[in-house]
Amino acid sequence: MRLANIGNLGIKELRSLVRDPIMLVLIGYSFTVAIYTAATVMPETLQKAPIAIVDEDRSPLSERLVDGFALPYFQPPHLIDQAEMDARMDSGLDTFALDIPPDFQRDVLAHRQPTVQLNVDATRMSQAFAGAGDIQAIILTEVGKFAGGHQLQTPTSPVNLDLRSRFNPELNRVWFGSVMEVINQVTLLSIILAGAALIREREHGTVEHLLVMPVTPFEIMMAKVWSMGLVVLAASAFALVVVVEGILRVPVQGSVLLFLAGTAMQLFATTALGIYLGTVARSMPQFGLLLMLILLPLQVLSGSFTPRESMPAGVQDIMLAAPNTHYVMLAQAILYRGAGFAVVWPQFAALAVIGSVLFGLSLARFRKTLATMA
């Protein structure tokens, strides 16, 4: 093995990438627009939810409840009658329909604990479940204020809950969406670039040129790994500093350099996986189909969308063999909770082992492919 060969071949890969405008646009889009979009379009816990209210009481208290639902969490309530409520929900016009019964204020003042009916369109999952709790909180708050103004005793809880939201005190969806999208794009682009580089060699006929040169399969493969990995590493650093911290104003808690070191370990594994897929696929369309089979489980089951603890035990065990699982754990610990190397070293070790195995398998497959072409 000669390091000069690996370096020169890697530079050749970078030059080939520069001459591929489609790949350059993909890289630019993935680490800028895609991250910004994923961070900002994630639904709020509740934002501009449509609500209709049937006010059968027409009292100061019921009017106070109507005024309690306002932007940005709710759209201005539509005051409707009982006959319109079901029709509006059937038409999908309202996510929530609140029915305030007659004599509501009188029953509150008389300590009769009246019942308020809330109908929820549960097909709108991003708002329905959280919104029901928020509506209950608004009603209890407004009734409590009204009761206090009339010097009424309201039931008090025997326990006070002191809620402290750590790592994301603003409960801002952008903090989660932006970082997770950077993680997903690292995996996506590294596999695509490495596999496409190999397929591009085959389609352009330059593999045959490499076979007659004094280079080994290890040198060829290592050149693709470091060059494509370097591109994704630089793009992820740019996205984290400029897009996430700069444009989206997300405060990164931990060391960016430690995160990039973990990203480099992840890239070692995923670029090797991309080369393996590139040896299996015979064309870019086949490569794209293989990506669909590989990327979806890697991203969906890695813990970036759903906590691993919520998955079946068998799935959790199987996904320990995937590099994404350890990379997500590593990235979340560093960027969200400010963890140091003493906390995330098991994930570094796991990525090193998984990357070495994938690299060995890819190298064996790559050598076999070259042998059949010789």
From TrEMBL:
InterPro entries: ABC-2_transporter_component (IPR051449), ABC2_TM (IPR013525), ABC2_TM_bact-type (IPR047817). It is found in: Cell membrane. Residues 128-369 form the ABC transmembrane type-2 domain. It is a multi-pass membrane protein. GO terms for molecular function: ABC-type transporter activity. Pfam families: ABC2_membrane_3 (PF12698). The chain crosses the membrane at residues 22-42, 174-200, 220-244, 256-281, 287-306, 342-364. Coiled coil: none annotated. Keywords: Cell membrane, Membrane, Transmembrane, Transmembrane helix, Transport. GO terms for cellular component: plasma membrane. Belongs to the ABC-2 integral membrane protein family. This is ABC transporter permease. The lineage of its organism: Bacteria, Pseudomonadati, Pseudomonadota, Betaproteobacteria, Nitrosomonadales.
